[in-house]
């Protein structure tokens, strides 16, 4: 019975209420005991979730728009951990809740501190400047005839303290080394944001690298004055550059570029077509110095040291040779990591390898997921921003998938050594390689699709040949050739290494150009990606039957990603480039068909299209001239009128106003007059300055913008709020003849 003040009090008897409370308490007690029993069965796996909680806190910071949300998340995490202290003492659920809350808060606070700590002045707008600067690093991109200089600008100039400039190789005067002082004239600009939604965010990477501007040199770059004395790092980078140039001089073409990448991590000598073939075939991981290369270096060093030391009977009988060899391998791994530039994947691999060596020295099995977790914690504490990059995600996903697979009892039993013939043993090993490759490809596919919008389908098969070829033939030949070069005897070994690398490139081209070799997917929603990652981690990190619960979020995320429609219209952040997807989804029509390969690839990846774009002039019913282009788009029974400018010439204002009035969407790379009033969207320079590049789904009237994912971040160019998608009610109210709010 209701009263005027609310619901009437319950008429149940006190005894009945007490009975219900007891039943409720008993239910909670049974659930808690079941939870404790499950955690007890998985007690050896609980530590593996510590880096996951740390990474979740970092992710929360990356996804939240401002300091209020960051503070709220930290307080909520600490509050959740504090609430867990109310659970019964001595239980695993209590400890996990407390530690998990602290890890979540620590992850968010850690990357927040890191972003503030690395903050450096940044250029506000493009400019052309002549200045002198000290060279910090030199990267030679031989395949593009470009040298990339990282410079420290003088403090008395109104320039950021750290700048990166591309210089044509022909414009370098003299030998430019780290520590040199150079004079140049360059066009500089702020680190650019993603051109379209889902593209690579260089501005975020530049922020954490301390880069305040990028650009290109206009004319020759000359060395002036005396070279500043170089420190350890500059000297090491100079050695790295010299070694890379020496390797590329011994092996011509992209084969030499790959050889240099294996030695120093310098990928600048690989032609773009060959690098693309390596990516499409799933072999690009061989070009980045990571676990495979560091392990090969340490393993080879240990093997050689053991064999040499064992030649002495006295040492073999009295000295702990495995421990000495492990120490030598550790030194070799550290030296290799430093020579390769100490990038995050290399450092992660080196840390993991050192932990393995410590385990070997202690006589324990070190190749476990605990090793992976320790390496992940080390990287996240030192470089929390690495979590957002594909390198961290791909490397840890691959290693986790491999170890989790081989720790499974059935797989371990299948691959264990046994008394059988040579052919049967080889067949079993080959089956293990194929199974491992398939599992790794499945683990990496969501990450590759999220970051690069494509995934290779034949990578597992290509890696069966490519990994042994690289590990056991190419790298040993290259190491022996470098040693032989000390006496001028390396030419035959370099010839053999070149032939092996040519075979590697042939495998990459064959696998990358096969029919259906690459699966393209448009920009994936972040929620779908998060579900797939969460499901994959749940399956990989647990050991009991509850691991299969992870199939539910994994399948849901995959279905969400596959069901997400590709955008019909994509506009870059500068407004110069526009792409229309045809109704079949197989091709793109480009406003400027002479756009370079970079822009074509960028737009194709955002739309999930692998085919070359056509000119928008060839779109059915398009009416294009040198200044304007009018196109009609049919989507789901509705016709949309698009108008776009494609020249710097101004159009007669009356004619422009009439054209705008008949269009639903108008796109321009300049500010359009206020009298230009399209029926829905006016995408011009003021609009794009607020939103960045946009991707539009016409069927749903949904607009994705670049700035929506960058709002509140210190590297965002503007703090202005991104364009808000109109609600269905607003779209119905506006109608086809009204001007969209906020777009005038």
UniProtKB/TrEMBL annotation:
Its main location: membrane. Residues 70-219 form the DUF4131 domain. Residues 709-744 are annotated as: Disordered. Residues 262-545 form the ComEC/Rec2-related protein domain. One of its GO terms (cellular component) is plasma membrane. It comes from the Bacteria. InterPro entries: ComEC_N (IPR004477), Competence_DNA_uptake (IPR052159), DUF4131 (IPR025405). It is found in: Cell membrane. It is a multi-pass membrane protein. Keywords: Cell membrane, Membrane, Transmembrane, Transmembrane helix. The chain crosses the membrane at residues 46-64, 70-89, 96-115, 286-309, 321-339, 345-362, 392-409, 430-452, 458-481, 493-512, 524-542. PANTHER family: DNA INTERNALIZATION/COMPETENCE PROTEIN COMEC/REC2, RECOMBINATION PROTEIN 2. This is ComEC family competence protein. It comes from Edaphosphingomonas haloaromaticamans.
